[in-house]
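Quick note —
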Amino acid sequence: MKQQGPRTTFFPREHGATAMLLTPFVAAAILARTFRWQEIAGLLAIAAAYSIKEPLVTLGRRRIQWEGLPTRNWPLDLQAAARWLVVEALVAATSALALLLTGPWLPYAIIFTASAAFFGFAFWINLRNRQRNPLFQVASALALTSTSLVAALSATGSFPAWTWLLWALLAAQATGGIFTVHARLDAMAALRKSNPALALPARRTAISVCILLFTAAIVALVRQQPILAVALDLITVGYAWDLRRQRDPAALKLPFMKVGQRSLALALVYSVIVLIGLW
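Predicted structure written out below.
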C-alpha cells in the first residue's frame, strides 16, 4: 500500500456542513434583491472562519508534537496547518472589520461575538471527539444556517421580515436530516449486533421530528403560504421514506456517499422551493 504523505491542504472535508453553510447565504442574497460589496466581505468572513476549524483542530490534537519546538522543527503537515490558520484568520478578521466599520456595527458585533463563542465551544468538542453528538450537531445546524442573517444584513443593512423565517425553515430541514442520519447509523449498528431494539430510540426521535415538520407544513398552509407548505411536505416525505427504507437490511448497505448525495439533492430542491415561497 502506498504510504500517504503529510497533509498540506486543509479545505473543509464535511461537504454536507459546507452546503449547510453556503446555501442559506446564497438564498438570503437572492431574496435581498440587491447587491452591495459588503456581501463579498460577509461571504469571505464566513468561509474563512468556517475553514479555520480544520488546521486549528489539527494543531490542537497534536499539540504535544509542537509545544516547545521552534516552528521550523515542526512536522511538515503542522507547518502547513499553521500557515493555513494564519492566512484564514487574517481573511476572516479583515472581512469582519470591513463590515463593522461600514455598519451597522451593533448587529455585526452581536453576530460575530456569538459566532466566536460557538466556534470556541465547537473547537473544544472536536478536541474531545464528541462532534457526533446529535444535540451538538443540531446546535451546529442552527449556527451554520445563520449565515442567512449575515447575507441579509450585508445586502440591506437590516434584517428584513423574511430573514427569520428563512433561517427557521433551513434550520428545520437540517435538523430533520441530522436525526434521520442518526437513525440510519443506529439501524446499521442494530443490524450488525442482531439487536433491533438498539435502533428504536433514534428512530422514534426522527419520527417525532417528521411529525413536527408536517405540523409546520399545516401551519404554513393555514397562513396561506402553500409553497412553503409544499417544501415542508417534501422533506417530511423524504425523511419518512428514508426511515421506512432503514427497515430493509439491503438498504442499510447503501454507501454513505450515495446517501449523502441524495440528502444533498433533497436539501437543494427544498431550498429552491423555500426561495420561491419567500420571493
